[in-house]
Structures are given as C-alpha cells and as structure tokens.
Amino acid sequence: MKTKYLDKKKWRRLVRSKYDxxxxxxxxxxxxxxxxxxxxxxxxxxxPVVGEDTLVVANxxxxxxxxxxxRNYSITVMYDERxxxxxxxxxxxxxxxxxxxxxxxxxxxxxxxxxPDGRYELVDExxxxxxxxxGIISSKEKEFAYNTAAELMSEIDRDFGQFKTLAASCLKELxxxx
Length: 178
Known about the structure:
The structure is a single chain. This protein is α+β, with helices and mostly antiparallel strands. It has 3 helices and 10 strands; from the N terminus they run ββββββββββααα. The strands form 2 sheets. Strands 1, 2, 3, 6, 7, 8, 9 and 10 form an 8-stranded antiparallel sheet that branches. Strands 4-5 form a two-stranded antiparallel sheet. The protein is globular. The mean pLDDT is about 95.
C-alpha cells in the first residue's frame, strides 16, 4: 500500500499552489475536505476518461479532495479554471486519517473514474495486480479493493447524484476558507 497525503506538496507538476482544508459534517458523517488551487503547473495533463481525452491539470485548475470517515474510498473532484466539474476520481483506500495538516490515506491502487454525467470506468487494475505480485499487498487486501470498487460502482449506478450533492456541500464550506 502507498501512503498518500492530500496536500500534494511533493507533487513536482505543481509550480505554485495553495492548499486549504477543513473538517465538515455532512449527513452525520465527518469528512475531511481539502482544496488544491493549482495556480501554476509545469505542464498540463490530459488523461483518457471513459474513452474521452480529458484535461485534468492546467493553470488555475482546482482539485477538491474528500475523505469520508466511514467509507473506504476518497473522492477527488476536479474543476477547471471556471469551476466546471471535469471528473470525479475515486481512490480505493484500505484506511484513511482525518487529521488536519496531515490528512492521508492508505491507497490500494484501484480507482474508479466518473465523468460529471455519471459514466464511469474501473482503472489501474495493472497497478493492483503488480502490487500483489510484488507482495506489496496481500490477497485479502486485493480482494477488499475489488469488493469496495464493486460496491462503489453499484452505488454510482443507483444514485450518482448523492456524490454531486456531497461535493457541492463540501465546496460551499471550502469556499468560505478561500
């Protein structure tokens, strides 16, 4: 497993950025919400998402990262310079820590990418297979990741709007800090 910090301070792609975070209670659940403001990046980044080439990093883009206390995934909602949603990126996590200034997660390599219209795909299966083969994660952890991803995709199928509502509520709270 990889420990990943939300603030992305060590991400070399960022030349100048600002990070804000807070803990929010949403529908009875604590959520650590962080916002990375990418004022200047070394170079833009486009990635394929559900078969579409999607620009996810550029100057003045923002990434809101959410760590819901009771769930085994975190959500990164990516916005362009006009605050238009680009994608929802769900990282499957074994655990995460909601600690202001040191928010982190234990990443299980497997991810689910979702476009704002609800179309999604499971990605990074080669990464989780490689981590398993190298003994970085156990078969139990690999199975846990796939089960968590399957439950998440089922939840997206049933009601993707709940994630949009969560994101909107957290964004509203974070904007108070900006």
